Amino acid sequence: MLAHRRRDALPVSLRSPAPASDDVPVSDGPGRKPSIVREDLVAAALRLTGPHRSVSTLSLREVAREAGIAPNSFYRQFHDMDELAVALIDVAGESLRGIIGDARRRAVSGRSIVRGSLEAFMARLRADDKLLHVLLREGTVGSDAFKRAVDRQLHFFEEELRADLIRIAAAQGLGFHRPDLVSRAITRLVFALGGTALDSPPERDAALVEELAQMIRMLLRGAHALSRDSAGNRMPPPVD
Amino acid sequence: MLAHRRRDALPVSLRSPAPASDDVPVSDGPGRKPSIVREDLVAAALRLTGPHRSVSTLSLREVAREAGIAPNSFYRQFHDMDELAVALIDVAGESLRGIIGDARRRAVSGRSIVRGSLEAFMARLRADDKLLHVLLREGTVGSDAFKRAVDRQLHFFEEELRADLIRIAAAQGLGFHRPDLVSRAITRLVFALGGTALDSPPERDAALVEELAQMIRMLLRGAHALSRDSAGNRMPPPVD
Q1: Chain B residues touching residue A140 (CB < 8 angstroms)
Q2: A167: nearest CA in chain B?
Q3: Collapsing DSSP states into helix, strand and coil, what is residue B15?
């Protein structure tokens, strides 16, 4: 179970409603825990997910059981499983944006940013980051609210990546065609192909990183070339 | 229900075992149909799938009911729902490869191949091609056998695309860096972003086609540029 954190340090989506009385634990019945926070239910749901078990197939009853509370107590934190699933995705987004931070720390020079970012991503994947697994696997199935939550988190990630790409290109004095589309393409490619890593042996990771690095190089190179085209050195595009 | 086709015109995965006696329909009980072919069960399963209902959540009982047969008769065609799901994906692959054919017919010149292919893809999507919807939505969840079947179909599609890309580049006298990676990147991007079209209004399709066309242009342009690099005009890659 995640350690309790100060309430105002939690993202809004995970803050439990303020208790009616200060710090008086309410027993849910013989052998059950006192009232818990949303974070505990999200953690319980995450423990139950896996390669053949998506969040959308979890029942309220089993999540409550995993969290050690009575089903009725679930309703103190969430209206239903859909609301929990959305909260889970919001927490997954934090994990996701942590990848950008990891990547910046790993990059020692402009030349290693792509590879460093990919390695940061694979490291999170292999560190059994279940939040990331859910994002990768389940973005396309589930309720509308769930899918919108996934898109929202992906969008935040793409925005941070776009800002980084612009910053790097500017530092190199290079133009860049449609950085928003480049960052979206990179994000979706890494997610789609990175997701396959979950179903492949870890020995395959290095080859996958190499393939993704090549694809990203091609995208970046093409974006720079198209930017030069717009600036006046127009070549007819080979295929359009 | 799909019209019956000659048995040897069906893909192997959909051929029913040869009947024990020639053309003697076996009744499954009062009010139920005579024995059916695998195709009918696959069609029944497809009718039940939707935006919030993945193949892996369907039960044998409901598929049999939808097909109008007794549950026990299901076993004459498939060992279990997993085997049906794999057969469904194999049929979806045919639909998928039909997109390449559509795209070739739509392309009137080298300049319109990318756009023509994307429009062929979106047309299939909007024609309520449920097979395509299943491939787009469900490739990442389900049994290992199911996911392997999805990968296999995607791989066939990527191979056809790769052959087309090489052919087109050769016709233009252009080199091409790693056509296998380019075709995989294009396929995965179109699938990942095309899949979002299912959850967006059709009015958004044209904008999505435009964005995908730009991403593909960047990939192709970058592939040509990297090919020139290898041929001797080496520029330092802007970011690596």
Answers
A1: 136-138, 140, 195
A2: B239
A3: coil
